[in-house]
Amino acid sequence: MTDIEAVQETTGRRSREGRGAAARRASRSGGGAGPQQSYITRRIREYEVLDEEGLTLIEANADLVLEEIGIEFRDDAEALALWKAAGADVRGERVHFPKGLCRDLLKSAPPVFTWHARNPARSVEIGGKATVFAPVYGPPFVRDLEGNRRYATIEDFRNFVKLAYMAPSMHSSGGTVCEPVDVPVNKRHLDMVYSHIKYSDKPFMGSVTAPERAEDTVAMAKLVFGDDFVENNCVTLNLINANSPMVFDETMVGALKVYARHNQACVISPFILSGAMSPVTVAGTLTQILAEVLAGAAFTQLIRKGAPVLFGTFAASISMQSGAPTFGTPEPSLVSYGAAQLARRLGLPFRTGGSLCASKVPDAQAAHESANTLNMTLLAGTNFVLHAAGWLEGGLVSSYEKFMIDQDQLGMMQKMAEGVDLSENAQALDAIREVGPGSHYLGCAHTQANFQTAFYRSPLADNNSFEQWEVEGQKRIEERANALARSWLDHYEAPPLDAALDEALLAYIAGRKDSMPDAFT
Amino acid sequence: MTDIEAVQETTGRRSREGRGAAARRASRSGGGAGPQQSYITRRIREYEVLDEEGLTLIEANADLVLEEIGIEFRDDAEALALWKAAGADVRGERVHFPKGLCRDLLKSAPPVFTWHARNPARSVEIGGKATVFAPVYGPPFVRDLEGNRRYATIEDFRNFVKLAYMAPSMHSSGGTVCEPVDVPVNKRHLDMVYSHIKYSDKPFMGSVTAPERAEDTVAMAKLVFGDDFVENNCVTLNLINANSPMVFDETMVGALKVYARHNQACVISPFILSGAMSPVTVAGTLTQILAEVLAGAAFTQLIRKGAPVLFGTFAASISMQSGAPTFGTPEPSLVSYGAAQLARRLGLPFRTGGSLCASKVPDAQAAHESANTLNMTLLAGTNFVLHAAGWLEGGLVSSYEKFMIDQDQLGMMQKMAEGVDLSENAQALDAIREVGPGSHYLGCAHTQANFQTAFYRSPLADNNSFEQWEVEGQKRIEERANALARSWLDHYEAPPLDAALDEALLAYIAGRKDSMPDAFT
């Protein structure tokens, strides 16, 4: 019997004998993309691409880069003074690090910490075997539910926060889920932070586009959590990109300093398009990433010993034909796997990956690139996953349809991370005995007892026959995703928010907005 | 700087400073989906989901199934007699295996062997660190290049053989790449085997739908390779599905016996839709798979000691709501990872996975399901990968467009399998020194020297700007795949075939066709 004959025989057998009470009950029960978890605790091991020799080699080369070539901290006299005081060799804006200095400083950084949500049930662990998914970050454009590609608005921003709040496999409502370009550039961070607090109770990220906006984020967080709590706990996670190669600029260092001083977490992320910001090789790229992270992460400890900090890696390549960024290809996956290993050896939580793609529409290109990236992200043992849903067109576009497709895949990763259950029930020897050769398991007692949680159930995949799919209008997955997004937004209910707190937040925002004229660049 | 600002800055920097001679030369050179490899030699490690305790548990449970419940060999007195003589407890058609019997018999099966192609440069290794990709197997329908879903013809069959021959990441032209339903059912195997020999010089698979068709396959192979060579080497790989749960039927056992007697390789593949043919749990499914493979694979050694045999696993689940098969979900991936580990412990080459999906069209659903399956397939350390390209709609359809999209992904897997190069050139310290902080690598000497092979280059992904993509007609990837398939078929050139051999093959086919009336069922 060939594979396909076996499929046909099974289908026939099903229609002859019926599907049993289990399947009928399940079809009535509704179901969805798996249960909401506050975060994932991986029970599967990490995949590794470097052996001890390779890791030692990269580490030695990174030490050499730090000492010989150095890292620039630009336009920040305080940073340079702090490095000098810590024992670094500062020449102009270039900091040269004696071997071991950064690693010694990082001994005070916590390997695991809690990122608190305003709803304590939604707080997440960062580090160790925990994995946390957060939405796309940064796009100025959206692809909306009417099929238009246009500039994003604050209404889009609220919608993506709502979708992230409702997605059972999303653990954070993220940060800049899209750029609300209809709000002045110097005030939109206030509306963004407010939207995260108002429309979601999952943990959120802070503004990093200017030190004063970081201060606003902390001030608003203090209204929610209280002053003392914020100063002693992590309530925002903040994306600090290195300006690769080997530069930290004024804006990012400014935001880093604010957050580290208030004990908030920084994600030090070399932003790498290999071939442009790093060498065209995996080993060379890893060397540079490690050097940049060591310098940036160690700097947080100069600001405040014990401040939480992540080893971040944004890895893509460029097309050597056109110069355009490419995603989901093998080389950045190897970079991210290797970086995850380096982060574990350093004892820092790790960020990489997501559902990255270059495609302009949520087609098979988008899905292949996203899936290649996302499967790697999980197996690498990534602790914090930005861009986990909604990323389209190299990060220029937040797509509603892609968000829905991606969050379904995140549900699969959540299930995959549970690994193999070896309990007596899972061994199923009684089921094998009961059914025996030549029969089937559709209605057996073990199936009846386990069917509801046995398999991940996609709310978007169409597994029906061609004939049924044809009758139902030959829909592609993005049409089903569009309908699901509309349905979620129609059924959205805000999590409870204390009225006095809401008023205080709005008053703070009004005060800050009144204090300065609108700026649009 | 946020991720997206960094993308924008790079793009801007590129347009300001140009892309350098390297990129210009590359854009002139054409390029494609990577170089043709006869097969993949993986330099990356295998991913594992079971520890020693889990593996020992599954093995003990499988032994218990073999001894206590047994496996049926139906309608084959010879098989039952052979098992009795080997020491099994045969009751009716049910064979009960004393602990260790199957494992002892399998000690004579080779852990690695060569599957010979008529072009020796295309011969492949099966086992160890080798991975071999082969196309979809079995669909009665095609989705053609005009967008029609219709029954497959021998012309389609030839086209898929041609595409597999031309695909640089395809290592075999496969077997039943589609069912040529315009040829009588009792004669089409002759045209299929001939097409593989005529239109490709990569290794091919044999017919398994009846013992006499297996004999025809061997007879035609002997015309190509010579009688002695065939009897002492593997020149066909043959798909023997178990009729799970725990049955081998007359047809499959009949084909197995022919091939094993002639020293040809059998792939013993439990065909599992968990919840229908096996328990709904991963551990229960693995137990049953191991028991079935142990019985079927050991049987090949009763037919001919030393005959090559593979541990096969076709793993999917069913929707507990509709009963329909589902693909690319977490549970079958865990099954396949675990089965790969069990195969390695048994010392047998392993087959699983491919580019499986349930979608009716090559959309994001098809791609996510295929990519989830394919990434697992590579990392599991799979030796032989059937259905690696072209599979659509649960295996009912061979799709030209999906074939092209999938083969591009196979090229990525081929590159991924190379792992991390740690040579002095790859370490790129001179490049990091040359470029230094704040500059870029686009034109540096190291990039110039390495850009041609640095990154996998997809022939189908569109990485251009939105504006350029819009000007070029807003094409989805399946439109580009359609054009590429047409271009390949237009430019196809057959590999040389000795005229006398061609005549002998055609004469053999004519003789066989004349010897029996057409049959259509």
Helix and strand layout, with pairings?
Two copies of one chain form a homodimer.
Chain A: H1 3-17, H2 20-29, E1 40-41, H3 52-69, E2 71-73, H4 77-86, E3 89-91, E4 94-96, H5 101-105, E5 113-115, E6 124-126, E7 130-133, E8 141-143, E9 149-151, H6 154-166, H7 188-199, E10 204-205, H8 211-225, H9 227-232, E11 236-242, E12 247-248, H10 250-261, E13 265-274, H11 282-303, E14 309-312, E15 314-318, E16 325-326, H12 330-346, E17 350-351, H13 364-379, E18 384-385, E19 391-392, E20 397-399, H14 400-416, H15 424-427, H16 429-435, H17 445-454, H18 466-471, H19 477-491, H20 499-514
Parallel strand pairs in A: 2-12, 7-18, 8-20, 10-11, 11-13, 13-14, 13-15, 14-17
Antiparallel strand pairs in A: 1-7, 2-4, 3-4, 5-6, 8-9, 15-16, 19-20
Helix pairs in contact in A: 2-17, 3-11, 6-7, 7-8, 7-20, 8-10, 11-12, 12-13, 13-14, 14-19
Helical content class of chain A: 40-55%
Number of helices of chain A: 20
Radius of gyration of chain A: 24 Å
What's the overall geometry of chain A? Answer: globular
State the major sheet of chain A.
7 strands, mixed
- Tally of DSSP β-strands of chain A: 20
Strand content of chain A: 5-15%
Regarding quaternary structure, what we see is homodimer
Structural class of chain A: alpha/beta
> How far apart, in Å, are the first and last alpha carbons of chain A?
67 Å
Mean pLDDT of chain A: 93
